Fold:
Amino acid sequence: MASLRLHNVVKRFGDSTVIHGADLDVRDGEFVVFVGPSGCGKSTLLRMICGLEGITGGELYIGERRVNDVPAAQRGLAMVFQSYALYPHMTVRQNLAFGLENLRTPATEIESRVQAAAKMLRLDTLLERRPTQLSGGQRQRVAIGRAIVREPAIFLFDEPLSNLDAELRVAMRNEISALHRRLATTMIYVTHDQVEAMTMADRIVVLRAGRIEQIGAPLALYNHPANRFVAGFIGSPQMNFLDARIHARTNGAARVALDAAPADLSPAIRVADDVAADARVALGIRPEHVRLDPGGGDEIEVPVVIERVEQLGTASFVYARTADNALVTLHVAGQRPFGAGDTLVARLPIDRLHVFEASEEGRAITRQDAAASAHAAAR
Amino acid sequence: MFDRLARFVTRTHGRGAPDWTDWLTYAYLLLGLLLMFGPVVWMVLSSFKTPAALNAFPPSLLPYGQAEARVEGYDKPLPLFRAKLPDGSTRVLAEARRIGLVATMVDPQHPDEQFRVNIGDRQPERRFQLATGNYTEIFGKFDFGVYLWNSVFITAVATLITLLFNAMAAFALSKYRFRGRDGVLLLIISTLMIPPTIILVPNFLIVAQLGMLNSLWGVIWPAVATPTGVFLLRQYMLTIPDELIDAARMDNASEWRIFWRIVLPLSAPALAVLAIFSVMWRWNDFLWPLIVLSRSEKFTLQLALNAFQGELTTQWNYLLAMTVITLLPVTAVFALLQRHITTGIAASGVK
Structure:
């Protein structure tokens, strides 16, 4: 068990920089998920932590020990690979024992640890099989078992569930979470699946193009995304974004005009103080917060035309377009008799709105005051 | 077993009765079988012939020997002939002696009865007979055991070293990233373009300087680094996922241990292919051993076969027997490992 600290960690391949100065503190026993679209550098970051990839700049500490130049084998970590990477010519038992044999562990100790891990992962009847004779879920468990027997300081998972079918993925997700509760070891888990991130993580690290965009607890990320990328990445279906312009601003609040209806001014929205009047912004709202009926509070009303409806039984997803052709997704409870071409008025509650700069970075400029947070938490 | 064989050799390309394409295919295959396998069969059968049978005209496919019979009153067995007698009848008679064109012949059943027969009027009585002496005698007559041992030693040791060295080179070239890796590979492959005869003299000078002339090691060392082998193994090792090697590194395995425990076992098909190639190359090698080995007790089988072909006379029966023995190991290795060849060649993408 150990904590992990990254200080301004940089990775360059030749001229291209893949990790631009990552800073991260992982507490002992924490379950941290790296999430981001493919190519964002999350796997590279993980490989740098475990030592399979060199570190170009910055500092990496495991516990109190600086491990920048310590080889992978001596960092005391164990990794579960995306492809499982089981040795195909060895039986399950040999696969589990290989790492311990390399450490010159006594044979009796190897045997007891292999038995314990096999029992924990329900592999005890499969010990003499070869990986090719196992199902996907069983292979996954062997890969995890191989990490467990080493009793590592930190577990690293590199998209371990991406090769499994949906049902098995949910089951394995629970198993890994249960494993974390039982072992209470620090775990770092890489995935591109935000559902895995939301369900398993103590804290999520969102990466994009080699930069850490935001670090926080799953719900903190969901409720208070730091920028437009995080807002769009966390949550399914995606958050809706509507282009708008700041019109008039008063103390800590502003009225905006949507591009869809430039003539109408919205009620006052809380924005940060440093936002210029007349600035371009994007209003973000999650599909489940868009209302069809008046909700009592201040709202922006946006007329939309339905393009497509997905009926899930318990809920309906309505995909509609505004006058300026922006896509608005609505998550409506129950079964509703909508059809393509129908016109609706989407109501965006002011207290649910996120405001982002229109720049590429898309920094969140929603005003975060105590009242708003408490309000959000109470809901 | 037999009905499976029968079903196999009567397969048609569609269901039901054979088509004309089937007949054509089988005719073509049969022709190929005759062309490829015929000479080998003839050689093996001929290796069991006596010198007389080898020189007989017209030649026979099966090894026949002169039939002989013991006749009362004669110490040695007498050769049997089918003779046409003056009265027009044909009888099987034994030749007692022969003077010029006339042979004195006796009936094996009635040794008292003698006939004088012109040798033009008789045909030797032939009988299927394996001259196994060809094989047993060469061991005593020549240093055949020594030649065999030399060949086996060179082939086995050179193949083992070839596999080890080429696998190590291929491992580095396929799994490590280092400056100039592609250049090194290109350099190795480009040596394929240089015919061995061109570097014969420099190679000889080096071997001579190292004092390995007339030593089996002088044949082994220059041959172990083969560009074909490195390339074949490298192409195969590229198909081993890097994640396996990363996993082994995380499992505290040293690079040497990764090579032994992970990469080598997983390269088995390619290693088998290279082993077959190497055995064939070393076993059939002629030119290089001919240059390095000049003392006859260091000869390999191929050199011995060559030396055995005398300037004036050649004892074909022994030569053929030695040739058959020379063929056996390669055939055996091929039969044992051929299962791997197709997978190995297919996977490594080289021939």
Q: What stands out?
A: The two ends of chain B are 33 Å apart (CA to CA).
